Amino acid sequence: MIEIREYREEDCAATAKLFYDTVHSVCAADYSPRELDAWADGRVDLALWNKRFLSHDALVATDGDKLVGFADMDASGELDRLYVHKDHQRKGIARALCAELMSRSQAETFSVHASLTARGFFEKMGFAVTEEEKVERNGVTLRRFAMRMSGSERRETAALRPSSRFRSVAIAASALGACCCAVGLVCSVRLFSDPAIVSVRFAATVALAVFGGLAAALFVAVALFRLLNSGVRLSDYILSLACSVAAFVAAMLHLVVGREFSLSAASLLPFPLAVILALAAAGCAAWEYILKLNLGK
User: Do 261 and 126 sit in the same domain of this protein?
Assistant: First the structure.
């Protein structure tokens, strides 16, 4: 589970290592080996590095005991450093770090000197390029971009972000959908005990029960994933939509089979609920992902 907390002095060495590893892996497509070595030579002065962190508002992202990202911003609203571990890219960690720093800042504008690699990310965050720069590092010239975003743009961006309550609705719909599917499976036990059911129908009922059980298991898995993982992955939303469709199909088939065997209305009740909740979960997942696409997630 990804956690964002304030920087501590004991994080210094880990951030320096992450800085070197990230530059030489994530940025390798945009800069030559010579440029990468000039940018991050692996000889960080930890005392100065730590002093800069302590003079800024600094945050780190952790996954258990492992530091997977960090960022810091000064009082003027300039983002000094932002790096995320190569194995944790595109999980929303960089955006979460930036959003938290901006929400804590009183600055009217925010600025950053973005690398070629990071430019697209900051543009999706709402920053605009004000100037292309060339800076010298250890005798090597590197290209980067001065970028800026106003506080009003930041507030508009924040207003578009889906709230934790919205995510909770999607989780609750997924979990309740799983419960309804499970209850429906219990109700279908009545079909198993009916001696009038021929072998073909019995086999179809068993297959239907298994299908419903898989849908329930998927719902539980997605609910737990969305609850415990603060990252954002396309697979999360695809799985949400897929299991919602699976639950919808299972519920409709149970209704058809149940009516054929003249089951009571009480036995069939969980399935209309499962349909409604499956559609709610699918709608929440789709809408949340659309919002995040618009914000560059």
Answer: no
Sheet containing strand 109-115, edge to edge, reads: 2-6, 57-63, 66-73, 78-84, 109-115, 140-150, 128-137
Q: Are residues 30 and 152 in the same domain?
A: yes
Q: Which of 184-189's residues contact partners 24+ apart within 8 Å by CB, and which partners?
A: 184/212, 184/250, 184/251, 184/254, 184/270, 184/271, 184/274, 185/209, 185/212, 185/213, 185/216, 187/258, 187/263, 187/267, 187/268, 187/270, 188/212, 188/254, 188/258
CA distance 26 to 80: 18
* Cα torsion angle, 121, 123, 126, 132, sign: positive
Domain region containing 287: 164-294
Q: pLDDT tens for residues 188-208?
A: 555 555 555 445 555 555 555
